[in-house]
Each structure stands twice: as C-alpha cells, then as structure tokens.
Amino acid sequence: MTQDELKKAAAYAALDHVVEGSIVGVGTGSTVNHFIDALAGMRDRIRGAVSSSEASTQRLRAHGIEVFDLDGIESLPVYVDGADEIDGGFAMIKGGGGALTREKIVAAVSERFVCICDASKKVEVLGRFPLPIEVIPMARSHVARELRALGGEPRLREGFVTDNGNLILDVHGLSITDPVTIEMRINQIVGVVTNGLFAVRGADVLLLAAPGGVQRLDAR
Ligand SMILES: O=C[C@H](O)[C@H](O)[C@H](O)COP(=O)(O)O
Questions:
Q1: Is the ipTM of this complex over 0.85?
Q2: Ligand 1 pocket: which of 28, 51, 106, 157 to mutate (most atoms <8 Å of CB)?
Q3: Where is the active site (predicted)?
Q4: Statement to judge: residues 90 and 171 lie in one domain
Q5: Tens digit of pLDDT for each residue in 127-160?
Q6: CATH code for the domain in which residue 44 is found
C-alpha cells in the first residue's frame, strides 16, 4: 500500500468517531483531506464542521458541509486531525502545512482529539521532523535567537505566510524527550504565536494505519 492509501484508511476509520447530529472539528492536511471526503458521505447526519484552515474550509464547503465559526461554539465532541510525528505518550509535532495555530485552537475546545496517521508518523522521540513555530513577522530574528539558545536551528519557511498573516520558523535538530516542558518553554518566547508541539493537550485516540490494517490506540 502507498502512504496515501494508508492515510486514506486512517481517515475513513475516523468516521466511527464522529458523533451524529454534532458539529465536527476538522484539522488540515493530506490525511484530513481524505477525512473530509469521507465525511461528505455522512453530511446529512452531522450539523456541520468547524475548520482549522482556509484550505479545509474550502474543501468542506465544496462537499456541501456547512462550516461554522468557532467563536460561537463552546465545545465540540470530536476533533479529527493528522500529525507530522506522534510519540508513545500521544504528544505530536504538527504544522507541516502551517495550520498549527488554528488547529491548536479548535483542538482546545474539543472534548476528544482523534489523530489519524500512517504508521511512518509514529516515533520514539519527537524532533526528526522540524518543529514549526508561527511567529509575528517583526519578532522573527528575536525568536530565532531564543530558539538557537534552546539548541535548535530555526529556518524560515521561505515564501510562506500563514492564514493569520504570520511567518513560520521550522526548527531543526531538536530531540524532544520532554515535549510538555518544551511546548511551555517555547510559548514563553515573546513573538511566538503558537508552537507545533501538541503535548499539553495531546491526542486522546490514535488511528494508526499500517499495511495490516488500522490500529486504534487510546491515551492512558
Ligand atoms: O499544518 C498542518 C497539520 O498540522 C497537519 O496535520 C500535519 O502537517 C500532517 O499533515 P499530512 O496529513 O499532510 O501529513
């Protein structure tokens, strides 16, 4: 099976976690694109979706799924999203597509985070995938210096602007054995909007697709 077929398998398995009659939290990325396509098949059984990016919003609307503004919503039963890496404690690196800030906001108001991944995303230690950091443009050099002091090598994502009008620094060379501490530490750097570690609020369920099938793993 190709990696894309595995992503699709994980995405379709997430339909079992969608609560009928509810508004579904929807992430961003190539795995989530398969989920959106799958969700279209049950659009008459959900109220609609809250989206984490302009790209996901467009795809949801193209399928006739109503997209609600998160600000008017107190709580969502389920948020479905992919990850760039996920460790054994269900902490994740996200933001490879640059959607990390809105993803973290939608995840924060969701009762359950269902992570959909192909098996290549599961790692022992986070950090081989460069950690994305969304940064206010005027703070770029300051934030980069602070990240170097933490032992990372930040590189500007050239030619990329987030949905919020900010920049992304991708931090190479980190070995993240304590993701909760690093997430909180990076959040304290002035000028950082969001960092791509989802550890304080990690995934609750992981649907991990391998050639043998989709394995469901629950957070302890
Ligand atoms: O900003 C993008 C998101 O965090 C994605 O969830 C992540 O990059 C995984 O994307 P994909 O499903 O395309 O591998």
A1: yes
A2: 28
A3: 103 (proton acceptor)
A4: no
A5: 999 999 999 999 999 999 999 999 999 999 999 9
A6: 3.40.50.1360
